[in-house]
């Protein structure tokens, strides 16, 4: 299975490398947002920190990943509608390798994009005292978040009737960070908005990443962040697998 998955992964990665504008396009929007919020709005936003880009970066990284996984839906949708998926199914390969190749491609491509965004943040003045273990923990959280959103992306990739339908699900995910602690502290929000912001997944994930990058430590909130990521990933995986098996019949 590993060898077949590797071959399918290589096919998808070659397509991305032949058209690197995919990664660049995904990176451009969050970078532009980061520039806008830091240099235009940053002076008017009170976050209790001296360096707004440090406060902002975790939320921007989540938006970057949410934008990137939309291409997973699109690649899978293209394989299904072009008949390539049907050809793969008739070949002597494990069926799950087909989906896992798309999932691994999402992880690799999103990791590349996240690195680009972080490098730009450093150029804008981002600084962190976190040690290597804290950075690895941040990478682990972002990896779980990517897996969770990627398995969500598999579902419309398999079921959508149009290219627009395959990617439309990502729009709420991209805008969810705006109603969280990603851009401003939640205690500045009206009561109802604050209640939603403090109890949705992005806030716990952003706060955990921010604490790791700022102090190298996290509190109990990381367990909430991990529960959201793992719970979403498991549920999405089960639904996507069921849909895929039904399409094999």
Task: Give structural notes.
- This protein has eleven helices and no strands.
- It is about 80% helix and about 0% strand.
- The model has no long low-confidence stretch (mean pLDDT about 85).
- With about 250 residues, the chain is an all-alpha fold.
- It has one domain.
Total DSSP helices: 11
Total domain modules? 1
Q: From N to C, what is the helix and strand string?
A: HHHHHHHHHHH
The radius of gyration is 19 Å
Main beta sheet strand tally, sense and closure: none
Uncertain spans: none
* Alpha carbon gap, first and last residue: 21 Å
Structural class: mainly alpha
Mean pLDDT: 84
Helical content (DSSP H or I, runs of 4+): over 70%
Number of strands: 0
The global form is globular
Percent range for β-strand residues: under 5%
Helix and strand arrangement:
Elements: H1 2-18, H2 21-41, H3 52-82, H4 84-90, H5 95-123, H6 132-159, H7 163-168, H8 170-175, H9 191-198, H10 201-215, H11 221-248
Helix pairs in contact: 1-5, 2-3, 2-5, 3-5, 3-6, 3-10, 5-6, 6-10, 6-11, 10-11
Compact summary:
The protein has helices at 2-18, 21-41, 52-82, 84-90, 95-123, 132-159, 163-168, 170-175, 191-198, 201-215, 221-248. With 249 residues, the chain is an all-alpha fold. It has one domain (2-248).
């Amino acid at each position: 299975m590993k060898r077949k998955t590797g071959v399918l992964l290589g096919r998808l990665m070659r397509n991305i490398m032949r058209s690197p504008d995919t990664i660049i396009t995904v990176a451009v929007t969050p970078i532009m947002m980061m520039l806008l919020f830091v240099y235009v709005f940053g002076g008017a936003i009170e976050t209790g920190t001296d360096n707004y880009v440090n406060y902002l970066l975790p939320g921007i990284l989540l938006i970057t990943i949410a934008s990137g996984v939309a291409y997973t839906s699109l690649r899978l949708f293209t394989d299904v509608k072009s008949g390539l998926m049907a050809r793969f199914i008739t070949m002597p390969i494990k069926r799950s390798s087909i989906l896992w190749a798309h999932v691994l491609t999402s992880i690799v491509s999103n990791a590349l994009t996240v690195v680009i965004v972080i490098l730009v943040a450093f150029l804008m003045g981002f600084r962190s005292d976190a040690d290597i273990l804290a950075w690895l923990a941040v990478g682990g959280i972002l990896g779980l978040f990517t897996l969770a959103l990627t398995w969500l992306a598999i579902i419309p990739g398999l079921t959508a009737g149009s290219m627009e339908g395959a990617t439309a699900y990502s729009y709420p995910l991209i805008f969810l960070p705006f109603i969280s602690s990603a851009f401003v502290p939640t205690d500045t929000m009206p009561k109802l908005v604050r209640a939603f912001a403090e109890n949705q997944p992005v806030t716990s994930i952003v706060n955990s990443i921010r604490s790791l990058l700022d102090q190298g430590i996290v509190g109990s909130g990381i367990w909430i962040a991990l529960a959201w990521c793992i719970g979403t990933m498991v549920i999405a995986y089960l639904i996507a697998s069921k849909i895929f098996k039904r399409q094999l019949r």
